[in-house]
Amino acid sequence: MAQLLLAGTELISGSTLDEALQRVQARLESWASDSGAYNALLLEVFGVQSSEATGALQASLSGSGLGINLEILDGTTLRGINGAYTSAAPDGAQRIYLNTSWLQTATAAEIEAVLLEEIGHAIDHTLNGGSDTPGDEGEIFSARLRGLTPASSAFSENDQSLISLKGTMVAIEAASTNTTPVSGANLDFEAGLSGWNFYDSVTLVNSTSISAGNNIWSISPSGGSMAQLTPSGYDNEFSASAKNFLGISDTSLNYINSTFAANSDGMQPTNFAAASTTFAANAGDTLNISWNYVSTDYIPYNDGSVISVVNLDAPTSFASIYGFSAEVFILGATSPGTGTYSTGSYGSTGWQTAKIRFLSTGTYKLGLSTFNLGDTAYSPYLFIDDLKGITLKNGTSFAPIGSDPTPPPPSGTPVVITDTTPPNAPSITAVTDNFGSVTGIVASGGSTDDTTLVISGTAEANSSVTVYNGSTLLGNASANNSGVWSFNTATLIEGNTYLFKATATDADGNVSVFSSTYTVTVDAVDTVAPTVTISD
After folding, report:
1. Over the stretch 504-524, which tens digit does the pLDDT of each residue have?
2. 450: closest CA among 393, 504, 391, 523?
3. Which pLDDT belongs to residue 177?
4. Dist CA 16 CA 132 (whole Å)
5. In the chain, what percentage of residues exceed pLDDT 90?
6. How would residue 179 be classed by pLDDT, with cut points 50, 70 and 90?
7. Looking at residue 207, what DSSP letter applies?
8. Are 365 and 310 in contact (CB under 8 A)?
9. Which pTM does this prediction carry?
10. Less Cβ around it within 10 Å: N or C end of the chain?
11. How far is the C-alpha of 388 from the C-alpha of 465, rounded, in Å?
12. What angle do CA 311, 309, 203 make, to 5 degrees?
């Protein structure tokens, strides 16, 4: 039997990798042989009950093995990551990858830990129908199987990433230089559109609803305002004007046109709307900007959106966008396989966050653009804000979609991760009640009659903040360039006491320890003191 099948490399008997594979084999066989322990761990880590699917997995572990291909890749391709799992390699099969540079110094125990982590990702994909369990379920699985206590960061870690392999962007779940935020860029739009230049229809909105097919999309900002972009111009406008407005090179313009044409039956961008702003940044600075693409078109027709970061002082010295050294990067699109996030007909990406790191000091132009493809009808929308806002689909909360499993190839090369220092713990500075006769900040240890609270605080600038009730994940927020974040809870249960706490994850995936706990009791009774009337 074989849980993992080494591909493209000869396995040397007695090598450290060989020893690690044997340890993995023995560990999985032992676990599968005890049905009680087997089912308990599946429930704890992956949230699945005993079923026909778990029984089939148990039989594979005890019998023929998982048979997942294991491939050794160079460290640059893996962007410094030790190991990774994908459910859709370029050949369409699931695959586990290991970093050849790391293997040269790793012990058998360290390799075993990473292999079990990636096998955990594979099990999660199999049993949960491709839906990723929150946190790094692979790391938790690996630790539990080896009799260890998982790191607290594993329960909040965002383990998803992208690598470029054989000309294809591959979505992975990954195994495990602090940065400074850019100052001077107006990204929250609370002061209007000051500092931004516009092309075509760019407006400041508080919130809006868009009719797309049978869907009504309601989009709200994180604060009071956001920018709304939608094209309304003429055919061939993008090729004629986008280069000059965004400041991008001929190479970048050709990349956008040719990439969409290759994946959209020859259709290229026609009319477009765009916004740009210019600011100074130092090497190592970071910038996060949130965006939401909404399609009013339907497959087989397609529309799209891009982000651009141009170094005005040294045009060939690029920033890192989503981990790739590039001048432009494709964001949302309608048709599957054409966007980094693809919505399908009449869909929305939900609020996403583009992460940018500046690799050299200079003056930069940031641009965001959305466009029609092949026609000028059923125009898309692109919303911009500093933090993630709220998306409703037909009145129901809509979570951000995952990245496209087969996105278009990026225009640049991967930037290797070098920062391994976790950020400081975030803080929860306020929990706010907006309902009833008494509103305002609820002190820690206090009570409220509001069942939908606003939790706010500070964290490392541009970090991703994960909010919990005790050990239960509530959701995520993004700290802006000043480190400020806020999170709106779902409906809370009356009569319960909530133990709110949070972690922060930086651009390199390093996770902080938990914040201090902020305790609030939800009580349906309004906390206004009663009025007593005394009469004769």
Report:
1. 988 777 888 899 999 999 986
2. 523
3. 34
4. 31
5. 53
6. very low
7. -
8. yes
9. 0.55
10. C
11. 11
12. 130
